[in-house]
Design brief:
Blueprint: H1 2-41, H2 47-95, H3 110-141, E1 145-149, E2 155-158, H4 160-166, H5 170-173, E3 200-205, E4 211-220, E5 231-237, H6 239-253, H7 263-280, E6 284-291, H8 294-301, H9 303-320, E7 326-331, E8 334-340, H10 346-364, E9 367-369, E10 372-374, E11 378-385, H11 392-408, E12 414-416, H12 419-440, E13 444-453, E14 459-470, E15 474-476, H13 478-487, H14 490-512, E16 518-522, H15 525-528, H16 533-544, E17 551-556, H17 557-560, H18 564-577, E18 580-586, H19 593-597, E19 603-606, H20 608-612, H21 618-633, E20 637-640, H22 646-655, E21 659-660, H23 671-683
Parallel strand pairs: 11-12, 14-16, 16-17, 17-18, 18-19, 19-20, 20-21
Antiparallel strand pairs: 1-2, 1-5, 3-4, 4-5, 6-8, 6-11, 7-8, 9-10, 13-14, 13-21, 14-15
Helix pairs in contact: 1-2, 2-3, 8-9, 9-10, 11-12, 12-13, 13-14, 14-16
């Protein structure tokens, strides 16, 4: 602004100076002419006065011209000084890294050119300074520690992240060898790999001696001449990542609940144990453990209790096993144990027996979960290396087959692997697909097991039991295929088919016998969980015109307690329909009396396992006595299942149990045979009534 005004002002001043100077000269010249002309006409005596006057004018004009020139020079000098001052001030600002405003263009004179050069210099400096500051900001904003070194590894430059990572001040690091910050006890010196760009890992050592895992890359600082050999190391602290990796590795190998190796890790450890056993020519023993009826514990007490049970198993196994044994959780409630130096021969065999028995006994000790006393047993399958299998997969498979056999034997036992067991396992798999085909081909049948009134010996009704008739193998019992059907939704189809068949048979019986009695049908959990279950049952009954009051649905104690709130509602609907409801296998679950009272149940069926040993096991006798008493108090009928001999029958008679069913009265029979029984009873020619006398 000032700069722009100066040239115009100066021009004005100069023009004014010239004008005034010219005016002074013109006046001087006019005076000289006037004086000369007047001297010609005036007497000589007056010449002196005339000359004096002319001289006065000349002197005044000159003085005026000189004064004006002085003013012009002063103004010019002032203007130049102002320009120089401005230049100096701007230069000082530049020195202090303040780029300010560009200088006004001040013409073509030397100072003007100097100003233009200054402006150019200022612009260039500003652009390099701005980009350098920007670079600095980028560097200090980076999360990675950046270390620039010379070709010899001397630190030339670092960023804020580096000082924060290592705890050194910038001055301490500059000039230091980069090797100084590498923790050489844990990693090699940094590798100058500027071509691949692949991150590498190393350990830095902080000022305080802390070892820090880092991932770093190295690149070259390139300049225009391409001669620079400086390196840039960009390092990232990967402590958290390492920790996460370790955690993941741990979780991938260790079962989170029981803190023992999981299946994958166990297989790996078993592999190593087998390799060691092979090298030292020693045997090795694999125990496969599974909790009996674990699902019931889960269903009855909830998943927390189930978890506590699994933890207890892991703890007890760990505590009772010999040194160097390895324990793993293979799945759900399945655990496995490798015990080195235990074999199949002589003393080894005895030691294996003792260990297996002591482990099962230890597991069978009751324990408390959330105030409930839980009784748990386990079964065990044993396979030996090298006798039973030479590798991990076969050894586990064979121990599993032995476990299955232990389960079939009733649980709480251990079984050694035998080749025949594997055949059974293969068959089990085959069964699944064959069962589906059998169902479609109508190879299933329903047999009926009569229930007798214990007081009169009269047939009170029957239980419908499904069977599978294989052309080449005869009848297969539900225990061999119902669990398989329950693994798929086939159980729902089978269940509905059984009910339909029962209704059909019932109609046939009704035509010949006055009262076929109350027929009970077993229900599986999956059926109960079906939406519209009540409607479906109602529809089947209606289609055969069978009264719901003629039927009873048997639900096991465990199924009942699976989701009590939901089940109560469902059973209320079934009860409202007119159906009778019975609790099957009573005594094997964990239901309490108060829990039972909420269900609209009219019959308790005592599990056959209690009836079996009633004569020899006083506990079982007490249990049965209690159940009968309880049923009476709750106004329920009590049916004792699995009555095989007269001792059992007499015992139950003494207790005044309501009904009995069992092999004592023959095998479960076809629909035709049941009708014959009903007719014989009506005639008074049935053979069983004598047993009740
Ligand atoms: P459950 O309902 O407890 O049936 C009684 C079982 O005891 C039947 O076995 C019967 O044959 C057997 N039994 C009867 N009297 C005696 C005896 O004196 N001694 C011995 N040791 N056993 C006796 P089964 O027919 O093998 O049925 C086994 C289980 O399969 C049944 O137990 C029931 O839970 C299930 N089941 C049978 N039919 C069906 C069905 O249609 N649907 C569903 N979901 N389950 C069924
Ligand atoms: Mg039953
Ligand atoms: Mg039963």
């Amino acid at each position: 602004m000032i700069g722009r005004r100066i040239p115009r002002y100066t021009k004005l001043i100069v023009a004014l100076g010239i004008a005034l100077g010219t005016a002074a000269l013109v006046i001087l010249y006019r005076e000289y002419r006037l004086v000369t002309e007047q001297m010609a006409v005036t007497p000589a005596a007056e010449h002196e006065a005339l000359v004096r006057t002319g001289f006065g004018w000349a002197a005044g004009g000159s003085l005026l011209a000189l004064g004006l020139c002085a003013i012009v020079v002063w103004l010019f000098a002032r203007r130049q000084t102002a320009r120089i001052d401005e230049l100096r001030a701007e230069a000082e600002k530049l020195r202090d890294a303040d780029f300010g405003e560009p200088l006004s263009q001040t013409g073509d004179d030397a100072l003007g050119q100097l100003g233009a050069v200054f402006n150019d210099m200022r612009d260039r400096l500003r652009s390099t300074t701005v980009s350098r500051d920007y670079m600095d900001r980028i560097l200090s904003g980076m999360n990675e520690a950046i270390v620039v070194t010379s070709a010899h590894g001397r630190v030339k430059r670092i960023n804020r992240a580096t000082t924060e990572l290592l705890g050194y001040a910038e001055d301490e690091l500059l000039g230091m060898s980069i090797d100084y910050i590498v923790d050489t006890s844990k990693s090699a010196t940094l590798i100058d790999d500027f071509t691949s760009g692949v991150p590498r890992e190393a350990f830095f050592e902080s000022k305080f001696g802390e070892s820090i895992p880092v991932s770093y890359t190295c690149s070259l600082v390139e300049d225009e001449s391409k001669e620079s050999t400086d390196r840039i190391y960009a390092a990232q602290n990967i402590t958290e990542r390492r920790r996460a990796e370790q955690r993941i590795r741990y979780l991938a190998r260790i079962d989170a609940l029981t803190k023992v190796p999981n299946r994958m890790q166990f297989q790996h450890l078993l592999q190593r144990a087998i390799a060691r056993a092979r090298r030292s020519n020693q045997p090795l023993c694999l125990l496969y453990v599974d909790i009996d009826h674990f699902k019931e514990i889960n269903d009855t007490f909830g998943h927390l209790a189930g978890d506590a049970t699994l933890e207890t198993v892991a703890e007890r196994l760990s505590a009772a096993l010999p040194e160097k044994s390895v324990i793993g959780r293979l799945a759900g409630d399945e655990f496995a144990v490798v015990v080195p130096n235990l074999g199949a021969q002589g003393e080894d065999r005895n030691a294996t027996n003792d260990l297996a028995r002591s482990l099962l006994d230890r597991l069978a000790d009751p324990f408390f979960v959330q105030g409930h006393e839980v009784f748990m047993t386990a079964s065990m399958g044993i396979a030996l290396y090298p006798k039973d299998a030479p590798n991990v997969i076969d050894l586990i498979r064979n121990a599993d087959a032995a476990l299955y056999s232990a389960k079939k034997a009733g649980g709480n036992v251990f079984k050694y692997y035998k080749p025949a067991m594997n055949e059974a396992a293969v068959e089990r798999l085959m069964t699944k697909s064959r069962l589906k085909r059998a169902f479609e081909r109508d190879e299933l049948l329903v047999h009926y097991q009569p229930k007798y009134n214990i007081e009169t010996g009269e047939v009170f009704g029957a239980e419908a039991l499904v069977r599978w008739e294989l052309p080449d193998r005869g009848l297969i019992l539900p225990s061999d295929f119902i669990p398989i059907a329950e693994e798929t939704n086939l159980i729902i189809e089978i269940g509905e088919w059984v009910l339909d068949k029962v209704c059909e048979d019932f109609r046939l019986w009704q035509r010949s016998a006055s009262s076929p009695g109350r027929v009970s049908v077993n229900l599986s959990l999956k059926q109960l969980r079906q939406v519209n279950f009540t409607k479906r049952i109602g529809a089947i009954l209606r289609s055969h015109e069978v009264s719901p009051t003629s039927l009873e649905l048997e639900i096991t104690e465990t199924t009942l307690m699976e989701n009590p709130e939901r089940t109560v509602k469902l059973l209320d609907q079934l009860y409202a329909l007119g159906l009778h409801l019975a609790i099957d296998d009573f005594g094997t679950g964990y239901s309490s009396l108060s829990a039972l009272q909420q269900f609209p149940i009219s019959t308790l069926k005592i599990d056959k396992s209690f009836v079996r040993d009633v004569a020899t096991n006083p506990d079982d006798a007490t249990i049965i006595g209690t159940i009968v008493q309880m049923g009476r108090n709750l106004n329920m009928d009590v049916v004792a299942e699995g009555v095989e001999d007269e001792h059992q029958l007499n015992f139950l008679q003494r207790l005044e149990c309501t009904y009995v069913q069992g092999l004592l009265f023959g095998d479960p029979m076809s629909a035709e045979n049941y009708l014959e029984l009903l007719l014989a009873q009506a005639d008074g020619t049935d053979s069983y009534r004598a047993l009740f006398a």
